[in-house]
Amino acid sequence: MQELKETLLDYKPMTETNVTAANILLIDQIGAGKTSFFNSVNSIFRGKITSKACSGSFEHSVTTQYRQYKVKDISKGKFPNFRLCDTRGFEEKFALDAQEISFILDGNIPDRYQFNPLVPFTSDTSGYIKDSMLKDKIHCVAFVIDGSTVDVMSDTILQRLKNLHVKLNHRGLPHFVFLTKLDKICPDVNDDVKNTFTSTAVCDAVEKVADVMGLPRAHVLPVKNYESETKLKPALDILLMEALQRCLDFADAYMDEQLVKMAAEGKMVHTKDYD
What we know:
Order of helices and strands: HEHEEHEEHEHHHEH
Strand content: 5-15%
CATH architecture: 3-Layer(aba) Sandwich
Strand order of the largest sheet: 4-2-3-1-5-6-7
CATH topology: Rossmann fold
Structural class: alpha/beta
CATH superfamily: P-loop containing nucleotide triphosphate hydrolases
Number of helices: 8
Low-confidence stretches: 55-61, 268-272
């Protein structure tokens, strides 16, 4: 656990990218635990259970703003070089605006932007970041899915998840699934989270989500958020930090690919100017 924590504390995007912090976007179905994931990660670095972001189980998304959260490690007084970006979750009766999602991915929406379902964000909206750079963009996306509801997830929500999966594939943007509510999937995991990777029920849930989303099984990461716990647990911390580390590894690969792409586009422009 301590090795994982030190690795995350030492993480830095490649100098060539001019990116100071990797941006990981969290998107969930309502109540799956997106905001609880941030609170859980924040608790690990704070050294105690905390609840910085509003979370809970409601009919509609608790998240009403676009937020870019940084966590602070209390023991060393430093901020790790990653941000967990929070946006509205998928709702049965409310579809995330496709253009709005594109603006988030492209780094055009400012931190603390207040969502308005009746008035979607546009390039004319106050605060629009026109000339966004790689440091402003999303570098990895994590879908947060409740493992106990995979079999009963509505066709509407499933289709919206698949549509976004296709959009991310077109962009070459890495994405994962954080599979939550493990304790509801398997009694053995409820007794001890260390049973996660020997649980047949968890394995089955991973398989189902991978098939539904069209993702490799290795991209479906079981995690357990802090919910009823009053003290930190090493085994739970390890699941959370391993998931975060996987995202950062792929975020680095994405940023590297973007540098190659920008260099190639720059050469093409230069050649045209020369001609």
